[in-house]
Design goal:
Layout (H helix, E strand, L loop, with lengths): L2 E6 L7 H14 L4 E6 L1 H4 L9 H15 L7 E4 L5 H10 L4 H5 L2 H9 L6 H4 L1 H10 L5 E3 L5 H17 L9 E3 L33 H9 L16 H13 L2 H12 L5 H27 L2 H30 L5
Helix pairs in contact: 3-13, 4-8, 4-14, 8-9, 10-13, 11-13
The structure holds tryptophanyl-5'AMP.
The site of tryptophanyl-5'AMP has 25 residues, from strand 1, helix 1 and helix 8.
Amino acid sequence: METVVSGIRPTGNLHLGNYFGAIKNFLRMQEENRCFFFIADYHSLTTHPTPEDLHGNVKQVLVEYLATGIDPEKSTLYIQSDLPETAELYLLLNMNAYMGELERVTTFKEKARKQPENINAGLLTYPTLMAADIIIHKASKVPVGKDQEQHLELTRTFARRFNRMYNTEFFPEPVAFNYGENLIKIPGLDGTGKMGKSEGEGNAIFLADDPKVIRKKVMRAVTDAGPTVPDSPKPEPIENLFSLMKVVSTADTIEYFDTQYKTCQIRYGDLKKQLAEDIIKFTEPVRERILELSANEAYLSKVARIGAEKAHESGAKTVNEVRDIIGFRKF
Ligand code: TYM
């Protein structure tokens, strides 16, 4: 039995990238491990410092976690700010996190470019907070998408450094994990890059989208004029549509359109129609559960309260031991 930790920021509804990059693995991991899944509300302040409805956003992610099948009896499902010991561990880790290594992080550089008016210290130390989230439960595995790989590398650096500096073997060095082995990146619908909540209108398909919206978004996905030479390689926007098919469609469907492409007979309209229906087949039951759960405030409060208790039991113990290792003593 291994300890597993992962989190999602409450900055928008969950999309197919979150599901296939992370949650799909959570569902399998919760069957056989000690799992902690949380909502990274502290982290969300690095990009959304004055959220209009922080509580509502957290609730939405809580509902969506549950709707996908995360079982609060098998896993510990909690809200990051309900475990304030995380912030203390973050502070302690920051004392041994160096400017140079934090400034080199790709996501920091990207965010700094995107929000030049708000390059805050939280953004720079985002990986230290993430390391605190993970090692506070002494996790060894972290199911995440490809975009989090570099953060995990830093988590290992911080864990190793702590052990070395305080001459202990307290923290394991956690690894980014995917049952499919390679970490994955689900592309968006705009032809380039990953699916993301802040990548622009229509780029992401959300688990809560209704079938009409899904059809519309998929039909508008970027394509090109189509291949004219048999067996030509697929340009990025087309490859992206095939990547989406790989997670929602059957092998037969993929093979059919692949052959159509290779023989220059492909009709993107047909491919998109099929892709939209396959996405809907996957999202519709989740969407129904989202609608049901949203109305059940009492259940959501109970889940959050029990999650906070279980997270505290694990996290407070670690932080007490860390204080002791560093040399803090009570008078
Ligand atoms: P976030 O909220 O951006 O995304 C949540 C999870 O979804 C994955 N993901 C994707 N995977 C594949 N393709 C995509 N297009 C795609 N978009 C998102 C992410 O890899 C992630 O696993 N820093 C984290 C939140 C976090 C965390 C942690 C994660 C805070 N502390 C501790 C693990 C452990 C983030 O911003 O994820």
